Amino acid sequence: QKEVEQDPGPLSVPEGAIVSLNCTYSNSAFQYFMWYRQYSRKGPELLMYTYSSGNKEDGRFTAQVDKSSKYISLFIRDSQPSDSATYLCAPRNFNKFYFGSGTKLNVKP
Amino acid sequence: DVKVTQSSRYLVKRTGEKVFLECVQDMDHENMFWYRQDPGLGLRLIYFSYDVKMKEKGDIPEGYSVSREKKERFSLILESASTNQTSMYLCASQKSGTTYNEQFFGPGTRLTVL
Prior knowledge:
The complex is a heterodimer of chains A (109) and B (114).
Chain A: E1 4-6, E2 11-14, E3 19-25, E4 32-38, E5 45-51, E6 54-58, E7 61-66, E8 71-76, E9 85-93, E10 96-97, E11 103-108
Parallel strand pairs in A: 2-11
Antiparallel strand pairs in A: 1-3, 3-8, 4-5, 4-9, 6-7, 7-8, 9-10, 9-11
Chain B: E1 4-6, E2 10-13, E3 19-25, E4 31-38, E5 42-49, E6 56-57, E7 64-70, E8 73-78, E9 87-94, E10 104-105, E11 109-113
């Protein structure tokens, strides 16, 4: 069993849609939960992170962690074509990150 | 701004060649990492280093070695390249000793082994 499972997509939505990206994980020791965004032909960049369970909001983005069900979500409101990228969830244990395989998102104008 | 640079964006090598991938970071980070990224498999950790001359195996170290002679530079070496090492290689750096410590990535090197 992989440490982190992520819906592979690809996901194609119209501009303005609400997007939900999800991961599940197996290791209950994870404390930090990161979301990275990777544009085509670029390295991943940190989008946002949460610590332990709960929600964190940053503009149009909301990260949610439910440790009881080991479920991680990223919501994007009012999605824009510039949000088109691959999104990787990455729970962390000490200095080691466990990356999901990524969900490719395409937001159509 | 943290900057992580990688020596090449694209590289084409022949089977059996020795390949060097270089990574340099300019923020005095202690930790550095090498990943490979393949479709459907995500990022897989090859090797990492917590300090100069120190290295630790990641999840898929077979066929690779690393070198860290200076704090800012972390090299990945393919001793004898094979076609199954065709991949995107990503280097990352990270500051240690803080509660929250993001990994900063370079732009990647797309390696093709023929």
